[in-house]
Amino acid sequence: MKNWFLKEIMELLDVSYTITDSNIHIHNSYKIKNDKVKKLMLKQIMKDPLFKGTRSLSSYLKEWKAHNYLYELGIEPERTAHVDLDEKDERQRVYELLAILED
What are the backbone angles phi and psi of residue 31, rounded to the nearest 5°? Predict the structure, then answer.
């Protein structure tokens, strides 16, 4: 998959992201269900000059998958429809467990 493909998917699904020093916010993240597309998007974000994060791709992916799982369960959909990938997130172990369930 190339960047043009990702751009088309994001536009089609109305998915966008913003980057700050300590956070990546992905608006409508629940709409991206395919892990390959999630990884492609995260790799693009991690190449952005604004990106200052130190977490691994795997760590971000697990947190995103956990949010999607909570959204699918109907748990706080107004919050779990979007993901905030905080640089220092104390809930990492919980996200790892939920990501396993989402698979």
Answer: -75, -20
